[in-house]
Amino acid sequence: MTGVLHNYLIVGSVLFVMGMLGFLTRRNLILMMLSAEMMLHGVSLNLVAFSRAHGNYQGQAFTAFILTVAACEAGLSLALILALYRRRGTLDVTAWTDLGEAPAELPTIPEHDAPHIEQEFPRLKPTGHLPEVPEEETAARV
After folding, report:
1. How far apart are CA 69 and CA 55, in angstroms?
2. Whole-number Cα distances in Å, 114 to 79, 104, 105, 111
3. What's the gap between Cα 3 and its chain centre?
4. Whose CB has fewer CB within 10 Å in the chain, the N or C terminal residue?
5. Smallest Cα–Cα separation from 81: which of 38, 32, 36?
6. Domains of the chain as residue ranges with CATH
7. Is 0.70 surpassed by the pTM of this model?
8. DSSP state letter for 92
9. Which residues contact 21 (CB under 8 A, 6 or more apart)?
10. Cα 117 to Cα 109: distance, rounded to the nearest angstrom
11. Residues 110, 55: Cα–Cα separation, whole Å
12. pLDDT tens-digit map of 12-21
């Protein structure tokens, strides 16, 4: 049984590593999502192999949850990819950097209308100094 388990673990590990390399090296969003799916399937295969080797169904039940999450992730990523392609006309990952909102501009007060007020900010005490405690207080603490 350990030889069969060993083979399943090798295949699952190869799937995970190929998915990780694909995710880290590709710039196309569709290929990145496919690589993430491949990583999830590699982990699922390892969970099922361990579950079978130990004679319980916990790994298989957890794999069902992983596949559910993978299906949700595929649907959401497809929607995001389509929205990006419609907006930018490209599937390059660097197009995501310009999609953020512009920072809000604060209203400015003209100089002649603003009263000149000196605002005093609170100051923190310097750190690293131990407070001075009288000796009679330390003797009472012990």
Report:
1. 25
2. 49, 21, 18, 5
3. 36
4. C
5. 32
6. 2-96 (1.10.287.3510)
7. no
8. B
9. 35
10. 13
11. 76
12. 999 999 999 9
